Amino acid sequence: MTTSILGPNGLPYADLSGDRAFKTFTKGDIVASLQWIDLQRHDPEYDEDGPVPCMVLHHAHRQMEVGCYVIPQAKAYKYIRTDGMGPTIHFANAVSLAVLELGFARTDKSAITRMIDIIVEHLPDLFAMPGQQPDALEVKRHVHGIEATMKVNGKAVRQEVL
Q1: What single DSSP character describes residue 44?
Q2: What is the model's pTM?
Q3: Confidence band, pLDDT 50/70/90 cuts, at residue 1
Q4: 8-state DSSP, 74
Q5: 24 CA to centre of own chain
Q6: What is the C-alpha separation between 48 and 127, in angstroms, rounded?
Q7: Where are the alpha helices (DSSP H) in the chain?
């Protein structure tokens, strides 16, 4: 069974590892799951349409008050310096935000070290991930009640859930 964080429209925002993951890695109590997420569905201002490859960082032990931190493949280049001289400011900010999002204290040096390690070790796996989601992983919206669709010439003009 896959545990999901659902968005406001009933679609899973992120499946926490499980069946939809391309690959999953664990470092202590931090998990990095490589999977495809439709970020534009949850944030209309996101520039890529459809499911995009992402690294989803989440706590290995499910907790109600914490979430996950998502690094899209298209934005991950910001974390790497081309001259090989250490991490960028974007990388440092991402680690700080991810540590807080996963429920660790900002001063937890052990959690910060684990977070840095898991991102650095598996960022190449994110870059190697296929850009297109397999058709078998297509996510359908959860329907509660009766869904009615009015079509004109095969095109849906109105859709409601009753």
Answers
A1: T
A2: 0.72
A3: very low
A4: G
A5: 12
A6: 16
A7: 39-42, 89-101, 109-128
Tell me, what DSSP letter sits at residue 86?
A: S
For 12, 38, 73, 147, the CA distances from 124, given in Å and listed in that order, are 26, 21, 10, 42
Write the CA distances from 112 to 55, 75, 86, 126, integer angstroms. Answer: 17, 21, 16, 20
Residue type for 73, please? Q
Q: Which two tokens stand for residue 60?
A: 């290995």
Strand partners, 80: 87
Structure confidence at residue 136 (pLDDT)? 61
* Mean pLDDT taken over the chain: 80
The bridge status of strand 23-27 relative to strand 12-16 is: unpaired
- Between CA 28 and CA 69, with CA 85 as vertex, the angle to 5 degrees is 35
Q: Tell me which of 159 and 124 has the higher pLDDT.
A: 124
Instruction: Count Cα atoms within 13 angstroms, Cβ side, for 120.
Output: 14
End-to-end CA distance of the chain: 29
Answer whether residue 110 shows pLDDT above 90. Answer: yes
State the burial class of residue 143 (Cβ atoms within 10 Å of its Cβ: 0-12, 13-18, 19+): exposed
pLDDT digits (tens, 9 = 90+) for 31-69: 999 998 888 877 778 888 888 899 999 888 877 777 888
Q: Is 58 exposed, middle or buried (0-12, 13-18, 19+ CB in 10 A)?
A: buried
